[in-house]
């Protein structure tokens, strides 16, 4: 049976980093928590709730579970507003070629993303009907770096883990894919030394 490809979303298909940053920064400033682009890098690929935990590590006070829930909701509201700016022109270089070539070769393709905004993002960039399966943080209890998202994506594709290639931009995603027993292609500077089986600076330069 042919191999399958599971694409991460944020950082591989489209870059939403700066939107996440702008939304988290607004929350951080309001709460007097130091936060910059470097700290934002720590949130790459991990869930919204875990991202908030990391952000609040530098907070001057502690927060109740209810307060955290509210902050995460507020962040998402700001983020969703910013996502309105996304268009198909934001699809990262090389993505459409990868999708076309996979389809030509008869490979099944999926999205495996921690983002609970996946459906909205795919809609904004015009790729809602492109993938054979879409698995997000909303479908599993444990998000990346746990393997659950990728294992469910493989199951929905009808592929065994050993047949799957995962394309990821985040260390948490590479750890998750390896824990799932899958082959990995790291894309971008954040996963250059993360132990991915293959690596390229951009998806356009990456090879299966
Ligand atoms: P949301 P990915 C991840 O998406 C992002 O990289 C990460 O920064 C974000 O915190 C996470 O989704 C959750 O996103 O708040 O939209 O549910 O890289 O796994 O596609
Ligand atoms: Mg990512």
Automatic annotation (TrEMBL):
CDD domains assigned to the protein according to its UniProt record, in alphabetical order: HAD_BPGM (cd02598)
Source species, domain of life: Bacteria
Entries under PANTHER family matching the protein: FRUCTOSE-1-PHOSPHATE PHOSPHATASE, GLYCEROL-1-PHOSPHATE PHOSPHOHYDROLASE 1-RELATED
NCBIfam families in UniProt: bPGM, HAD-SF-IA-v1, HAD-SF-IA-v3, PGMB-YQAB-SF
Similarity section: Belongs to the HAD-like hydrolase superfamily. CbbY/CbbZ/Gph/YieH family.
Stated name of the protein: Beta-phosphoglucomutase
Taxonomic path: Bacteria, Bacillati, Bacillota, Bacilli, Bacillales
């Amino acid at each position: 049976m042919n191999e399958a490809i599971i694409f991460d979303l944020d950082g591989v298909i489209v870059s939403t980093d700066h939107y996440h940053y702008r939304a988290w920064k607004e929350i951080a400033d309001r709460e007097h928590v130091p936060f910059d682009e470097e700290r934002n890098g720590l949130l790459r690929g991990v869930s919204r709730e875990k991202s908030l935990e990391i952000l609040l590590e530098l907070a001057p006070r502690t927060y109740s579970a209810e307060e955290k829930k509210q902050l995460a909701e507020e962040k998402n509201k700001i983020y969703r507003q910013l996502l309105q700016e996304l268009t198909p022109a934001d699809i990262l270089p090389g993505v459409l070629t990868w999708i076309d070539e996979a389809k030509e070769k008869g490979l099944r393709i999926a999205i495996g993303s921690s983002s609970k905004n996946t459906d909205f993002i795919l809609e904004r960039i015009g790729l809602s009907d492109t993938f054979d399966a879409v698995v997000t943080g909303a479908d599993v209890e444990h998000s990346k770096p746990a393997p659950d998202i990728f294992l469910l994506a493989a199951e929905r594709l009808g592929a065994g883990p050993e047949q799957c290639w995962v394309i990821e931009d985040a260390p948490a995603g590479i750890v998750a894919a390896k824990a799932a027993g899958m082959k990995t292609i790291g894309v971008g500077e954040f996963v250059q030394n993360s132990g991915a089986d293959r690596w390229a600076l951009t998806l356009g330069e990456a090879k299966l």
